[in-house]
User: Which sequence fits this backbone?
């Protein structure tokens, strides 16, 4: 039966060997919390152990590139109506992890496409069931232009260190961690200029991701990265290409994915799409310059009012 791990209990479980096997970097250790059986033995505990376990799960403790592939559906949700699956989605996330002296950075480059509900094939045109209008799906590209810095204390930001918010759970030899958040921002597509594409003056976004691994993999200090499966849900204002205007409602992204250690494990449909839209994606560490997002890119490539 699964149970929630407190931060103290998690640290006790996640330290597989003594601190001599997992050296600290002088950013502060937690008090000794005692020991208890774990998949790999007994140990003491420190903030460094928790930090390394987190990074091992999310990416890598060493300088390298990590890929994650995911697939799922985009749903339409309107009050007082049954939720409706609209299209399939398939994506690839590329993250460059860089080991620094006392922290680790990550720069991400994500891309993907919307597909037909029956075949999963890339959609060039699609009939919106809410409006009966034929629209052209605007496939997604995110990231580039900035790095996230991870430290033992939290994530670096312009306002200082933002502490990690981790919710750890366990069941048998499996352990998973939830991360979530939400925010609102001024829409790059204002309704006066973009009556169909803009959901309103403000856009709203929230997401939750669950990362799962085995304790044997995750707590092994010899692993710089570990096998991982993730489950992602996001809720946000209508995607501009749906042409829903300011109609009440929103979309939900729901996908399952996994960390990829060999690009040959990526499905051919995804590799074919990447070869078409970003042929240097695998070869170049930085496949594009600057930052990309759906909303700013849509504004650049589509005409206002459409």
Assistant:
């Amino acid at each position: 039966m699964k149970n929630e791990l407190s931060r103290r209990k998690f640290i006790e479980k996640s330290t597989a060997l003594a601190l001599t096997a997992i050296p600290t970097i002088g950013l502060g250790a937690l008090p000794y919390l005692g020991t208890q059986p774990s998949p790999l033995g007994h140990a003491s505990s420190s903030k460094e152990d928790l930090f390394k376990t987190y990074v091992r799960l999310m990416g890598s403790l060493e300088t390298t590139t990590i890929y994650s592939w995911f697939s799922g559906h985009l749903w339409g949700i309107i009050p007082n109506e049954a939720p409706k699956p609209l299209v399939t989605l398939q994506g690839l996330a590329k993250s460059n992890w860089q080991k620094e002296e006392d922290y680790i950075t990550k720069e991400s480059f994500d891309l993907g496409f919307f597909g037909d509900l029956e075949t999963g094939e890339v959609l060039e045109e699609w009939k919106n069931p809410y409006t009966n209008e034929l629209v052209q799906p605007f496939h997604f590209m995110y990231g580039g232009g900035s790095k996230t810095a991870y430290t033992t204390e939290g994530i670096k930001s312009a306002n200082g260190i933002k502490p990690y918010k981790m919710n750890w759970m366990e069941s048998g030899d499996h352990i998973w961690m939830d991360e979530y958040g939400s925010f609102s921002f001024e829409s790059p597509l204002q309704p006066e200029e973009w009556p169909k594409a803009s959901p309103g003056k403000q856009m709203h976004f929230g997401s939750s991701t669950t990362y799962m691994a085995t304790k044997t993999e995750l707590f092994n200090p010899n692993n710089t990265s570990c096998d991982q499966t993730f489950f992602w849900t996001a809720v946000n204002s209508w995607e501009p290409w749906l042409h829903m205007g300011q109609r009440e409602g929103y979309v939900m992204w729901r996908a399952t994915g996994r960390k990829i250690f060999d690009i040959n494990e990526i499905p051919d449909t995804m590799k074919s799409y990447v070869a078409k839209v970003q042929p240097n994606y695998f070869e170049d560490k930085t496949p594009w310059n600057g930052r990309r997002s759906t909303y700013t890119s849509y504004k650049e490539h589509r005409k206002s009012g459409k």
About this structure: The mean pLDDT is 84.
